[in-house]
Amino acid sequence: MKIKIEQRVLLQALWRAQGIIDKKSSLNVLAHLLIETVGNDAIRISCTDYDVGLIATYQAEILEPGKMTLNGKHSFDVIKSLPNEQVTLELQDNHWSKVECARSSFKLAGIPADDFPEQQEPDVTDGFEVDKSTLLRLIDRTIFSVSSDESRMTLNGVYFRAEQSEEPGSMRLTMVSTDGHRLSKVTTDVMTPTTLAEPVDAIVHRKGIHELKRILESDEVGVHVSTQGNNIIFSYGNAVMLIRQIEDSFPEYEKVIPKNSKISVEIDKLEFLENVRRTATLTSSKLLVVRFALERDKVVLSTNNPEQGEAHVEMDVDYDGDSVAVGFNHRYLQDVLQVISGPQVTCKINDEFSPGVIESEEDPGATFVIMPMRL
Amino acid sequence: MDAFFASVEQRDDPLLRGRPVVVGGDPRGRGVVAACSYEARAFGIHSAMPAARAARLCREAVFVRPDFKRYSECSRRLHDILRHYTTLVEPLSLDEAYLDVTTERGGHESATAVAREIRARIRDELGLTASAGVAPVKFVAKLASDFRKPDGLTVVRPGEVGRFIEPLPVSHLWGVGPATERRLRKLKITTVGALAAFPRERLLATLGVALGTHLHMLAHGNDDRPVVPDRVAKQRGAERTFPVDVTERSEMDEILATLAKETAQELMREGRPGRRVTIKVRYPDFTTVSRSRTLFDPTDDSEQITQTAQALLRRTRAGELPVRLLGVSVGNLVEAGEPVQLALPFMSSIIRRIRDSGIDSGDFAASPSPNRCST
To answer: What ipTM was predicted for this assembly?
Structure first.
């Protein structure tokens, strides 16, 4: 096999694979990507870690058809160092490959292309279209509260649901994530001509969501969502990403979102965020709690860290109820305040042992629940 | 304390008094001896021996399953008595501690008077016997306490240290195991006295600087370690060295479960759950490895510690290789009064489900149909 391809195009292809390939072991099949020629003017590059797979097609000049493998990390480092000119890739004996560009040439170790796990390009005729910014907004506001505790597998992904909305011609998308301490739920309606035969209902693994976010942020495209077998498939432009679903039931999240709250107070979002950060300067990795005390016409944020000192920060709010104080992990507050839209947020509290809720009028459909810390 | 677990059993059950009592695993199973009464020791039974072997050594031995709750309670009362005399109490285990009564000794005239009263109070208040050693330095005090077991008191005055330790075999010294003992024997050193008389430079040349300096110092009755009160303990745990290497993984799992239970009892007794579970494994060639996992939430649950420890064991070569020591510890403990993160209400059911299905990270069982929100 021998092809000619623009350095910039190849670099983009390799960059996309970096989050998926196994970078630790260079002998591992999963550290490699597979390149196959398609017709006489394109190549298909695929990589997988069995949880997330990516298949994408790029323009290239085919000098000799065939297939070969490249070590994902080493080839990325090499191609990144080259000027934006034509790169020639040629399969050598022993499954090595020769890379030539301008007056530089490299020989890279590889593995037999037949060792590479077979990946069928999925059929994506079903499913629905969604624009990139809608999907990114859902991801951005849920990804931070996904659990990374591997013994709680069911929480290691974002719960994603797409269903027909009551409004004709529109679809309702929901993403929910929780790590057991907090929960983020975002719902949005999108106009679409598609009618779904049955709802899409999946727990999408954290790693897949991270890769999807990374790629969506760099590409200007619409996204097609579908499911096939055990995978949820996101296709955009020239690429298809397959993410294995976590096969388990997501917890009944609606039950932990408080329906009514005794106390509700409006707070200026940026001032709140800034004050949480300010108070948190005296917290440590061992001591993450910020005391949120609601008093007449003010909120007092404070910390008391025996090793470093005490912080006391006040801000004005419109409140004339009973005084109440609840402890929260300051990182959880910051995570929410960084992603929620609108100039004002509404904080809803019942008592120091019950979940607190943050919402915003300008962010309908988004609900963030945080469990307190016992002070 | 003398034969601590066994003595508690004999105290609480008059039928066991005067009889060989073995506390530990089922003699028909693969369990090990955790403790045994002096009557049982006369038959050659000792702790960490397989229970089945103990049963063969002594047909009339009574086997009792350990009840760590009662031992912990007794241990707590013991340490309360000790702390009555000085704040400088360094616990070594549930039933052993160092006390520094140089300046602070609860109004008593001498260290010997303190030791006498402590032993009397243990007899009166706990109904158990204890042995004590009084000496100017830590390691001599420890040797003295073992000198007249059970129910003995040995006092070694500052001028008598040499006379006390010189006749003892070198194996009694802290840091002399079978290998060092063999090397010393080649130098014709078998007693502490011979070791003290041996030229320092030659000892260092033979044993290395660290061990040589250490043993030379001990042989001359010097030990500058202070008594460190244990309030700021970073971890809690238990370990066992086996007289015969353990080869079967099922047996190792059982031992880990016992160690986890002891650890959990200690954590519960102090009301300080911890986040980091560590196991320690020593192979027959003395190489020692440890494996740790940090949990998302602090735990003092023996079941969760057991499962984590058993999963960690699978990341070692234990089973493929025999082991001579196993240990379990929990670190990163919650400080007294530290704010505790509360969990969303559904978490208890998730944890229970994970536990019931025996699922551990890495081998998550797939359900036949994907996801769906469920109870």
So the answer is: 0.84
